[in-house]
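Q: Joint fold for the lines below.
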Amino acid sequence: MISARLGLYGSLLVAAVPLALTIAVGLLSLLPADSALHVPGYVVTLLGKYLAYALLALSVDLVWGYVGILSLGHGAFFALGGYAMGMYLMRQIGTRGVYGDPVLPDFMVFLNWQELPWYWYGFDHFAFAALMIVLVPGALAFVFGYLAFRSRVSGVYLSIITQALTFALMLAFFRNDMGFGGNNGLTDFKDLLGANLQAGSTKAGLLIATGAFLSFFFLVCRHLTQSRFGKVLIAIRDAESRTRFLGYRVERYKLLVFTFSAMMAGIGGALYVPQIGIINPSEFEPANSIEAVIWVAVGGRGTLVGSMVGAVIVNFAKTVLTGTFPEIWLFVLGGLFIFVTLFMPRGIVGLFTGLRTWRSQPAKVRKQLTGRALEAGE
Amino acid sequence: MRRWVSGLLLLCAILPALAGGRLARADEIDDAIAGFAGNFAEVEQAIGALAATDDAVAPKILEALADGRLRIGPDHSLYIEDAKGALVEARTGAAADPPGKLKPVKVNNRVRRAVEAAMGQLTLLSPDPGQRMNAADTLFRSPDPGRLPALEQALAEETDARVKALLEQARAAILLMVPETPDADKIAAVETLAARGDQAARVLLGTAAEKSSGEIAAAANAALKSIDRELAFWSGVQSVYYGLSLGSVLLLAAIGLAITFGVMGVINMAHGEMVMLGAYTTFVVQDLIRNAAPGLFDYSLLIALPLAFLVAGAAGVAIERGIIRFLYGRPLETLLATFGLSLVLQQAVRSVFGPSNREVGNPSWMSGAVDVGGLVLTYNRLWIIVFSMMVFALLILLLRKTALGLQMRAVTQNRRMAASMGIRTDAVDSLTFGLGSGVAGVAGVALSQIENVSPNLGQSYIIDSFMVVVFGGVGNLWGTLVGAVSLGIANKLLEPVAGAVLGKIAVLILLVLFIQRRPRGLFPIKGRAVET
Amino acid sequence: MNAAPVATIGGTPESMQPLLYLDGISVSFDGFKALNGLSLVLDPGEMRAVIGPNGAGKTTMMDVITGKTRPDSGKAMFREADLTQLDEAEIAALGIGRKFQKPTVFEMHSVFDNLLLALKADRRPSRVLFASTRAIERERADGILEMVRLTGMRGRMAGELSHGQKQWLEIGILLAQEPELLLVDEPAAGMTDAETEQTTELLRRINETRSVIVVEHDMTFVRALAVKVTVLHEGSVLAEGSLEHVSNDPRVIEVYLGR
Ligand SMILES: Nc1ncnc2c1ncn2[C@@H]1O[C@H](COP(=O)(O)OP(=O)(O)O)[C@@H](O)[C@H]1O
Ligand SMILES: [Mg+2]
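A: Joint structure:
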């Protein structure tokens, strides 16, 4: 709704921000270290991480903000995309691993595996891995969503089973014999498409790629939500059975958006992994998925812009606070959950852009704007 | 081991008398002693030979050997160093004046095992039935054909039926090993072992089945099958018992959730932290008792129960008044806010009590176990099963028979109607939430007995608890009971087949599929109330 | 009660195939029979008023017709189609539109968008994804706005409408679907007298081209419609005929009018 008020040019402007920001930071990081404008490498990595999270937040906002599906399992799609990228990066290590096996990743040699499991085939090709980055999360979301939406599981029930989904995946990925590195996950990456991951230029390139993807998907989501299709989504969110009685197959809409959103999250994860340098099963932790939801709530649900803003702000706060007062961080995060849901139902973006329209509305509508729109599902 | 060795000392004094007719010939003993000068294999043989003499000196020598106090002189005679460092002659027990430099007799693991087996043999004739049981058991576990004569003798003299049975099993084990045993005896032995029916008997029968042929092999194979059936049965029963136990834990953790979710439609993600508060209350109570009145320790849980209910219940009422009240009709927001609350509570407990596990002890009546058939039932799990059923029954009574229960049910079925009939729905909400949380606190007391008490205690149960509620259906405590017990049992039955983690994953997947079929659980409440 | 179509007043020839045919429908919730052998026949082009005390099963009947509730037993046909085998979206596509008892519109969309979403069109996601609003759609939506007297509210959010306006908007949404049969649940609830009158007129106009089933409590309203009336009681038909006819039926007087 709010991005509707943003208008086309406003949206283009917003979309330009991540790209421009990452290009600027990326280039500045390549300046010599003694230059006044030099941006240190850790800033590049941090920003890259925030923006990868922003992509995850965008995907959560698409399903929660516009269709009312509160997924507490989007972290799983993010992690699956990350693992797909990690598998490619593992295969790129080749003989440079500790054990020097040309095919098997170190952890498999360590576990005495003789040959590569079939599901690792193909991951030595980037194109194949890129395909899997979207296909694996997409397929999981499709199957899961097909079952859930067909039988009209909605509201908190849906939230709970999405949480169970990511929990089950976490348990599975912790197992050594799954063939994904167990506890330690995948790490010690060397290069991506032949570029050394430690090199400043590679880091800058990855950052810019992340910014570009974020900009791109923001525009895609904006278009999706502004179109007739998006209006149907909002209709489903606000009055599901009304929409159904108009002849819309609600489950198909939900399935389509859910699957698309999972793919987006997967891409976020794939961008995250080479910048952070590791992916392990803790990415599947249910708490991570819920945290992503709170980024969206903090920024402003159903605004797209807000989700990105929220992801960056909350994660920046996390970086600062866990660095200085680690004890306090959970208090802050927990407090944020409570505060935002109680006092800031429209999030940060709602505070700023909504204020004008807000004031101009009669009191009754104000209440509806906060209450009704934020109610999920039916 | 230590205890059994000291028991042995006492025994040594009486042994010769008991042994009656059989006095070892002196040269047997000398021969055996000479063997201790050789390599490990020879020492092992010597141990056997020495034990076979059944002479009173044998246990002393063996004990000294095991303790590393056996010395050997240049003339190959043995000396024992006693606790004070004085030397005595092994053969006679007289104070010794060794002719030259003494060396300790070296021991390795094989030698040590041989000593143990030999000691077992020597205690076959102890006056203490417990000792004889142990000895017979040792012999059964490492059957040695050389011991057969001593065993037969012990068997002839044995009066205690249980020891006798054990001795016969040991004899059967030996008989099966010896090729010369007549077929009829072997078959009898197979039967004896089959009757024993445990894993150890199965191993012996397995070897027998492999090594022999014809009738004996057939008998052994048949016995194996029957044992397998028996074992499978008991392990099935054991799994069901573990499942029941897990189910009752789940029931305790989930039932409060079922109340709040059922009556108020509120998902309380901080429910697990209410459980945690209950567990920490138990810890604090025990800590105070340890310092102030150690005599009360056995009552610590009874004291902790009402306190945990009050602490968690009060926290629940505070949460309802402070947060949830403002979010009615917005279940997803409630979910998020209470999740935030759970983070705050965890961190608060971590700050106060530290991040590591806290020790909560089992009172004496909760430790130990009882054997029933092939089952081992630990008291703490038994009590938890009993306790959860009591909590369940109490809650059912409360809902059925009290005014609060009536009002709660009215609110569940039709909130607006209940309100218009003069029920103060907000008060009912607060009390309901307090009740649900209080029950979670009580669950925490029980969980403190089988789980590590740490700030993450609640988290590990919250997902399972939700699954139980979703599976059982909302607003129906019987559904929660069935849900909890069947999930617990399903988990434990799948565990031996698929392993703990895969079993759990399988259960989660089955549940997700189940929800497709029955989106509102096993026992859904119907009505328009649930649809809006 | 009575399965055979009875054409008493203003009826159509018996040979004509009925539009809607309900026979012996029963629905129970936890043992409580909300519908108990309900039978009802509606001819093409007919408008029918369904009255009955609260809890008589009127809304449940609409639930059955629109596929929201599956009957335990009985037959429900819309022309050739077996309604008990179809889901809500399929039934809507057949040409049955429904207004809920509690007015339900898309509050976060403009009034105009509400209608746009309801206009008869391909509802498949793949089509909707690339649909753009054509001039003809705009015209049709504006035409409907005119008809339901909401032209002035065209750009406002539907959430801002008054209760009565929401009722009209929902009727407008039904019209946009171009259904053959409209099920209208208590359209006059919460309306002023003037609004009620306008609603009566609106329904009459709609009935010129479409069949309608109206559920209503308000007797003045039903009287003004002047159509055949079906009285429901405890899940089955108690009486059927002109309002005058049913209001003289002693059983009806006892359970409903006489209270
Ligand atoms: N989903 C449902 N679950 C339980 N009872 C229901 C449900 N729907 C309707 N009922 C019951 O069926 C009866 C008929 O309801 P309804 O059709 O709404 O009556 P009316 O619309 O004539 O006032 C009522 O007693 C109502 O409580
Ligand atoms: Mg009704």
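Q: Anything notable?
A: Confidence is low (pLDDT under 50) at residues 4-23, 527-532 of chain B. The pocket of adenosine-5'-diphosphate (ligand 1) is lined by residues B 526-528; C 29, 34, 52, 54-60 (CB under 6 Å).
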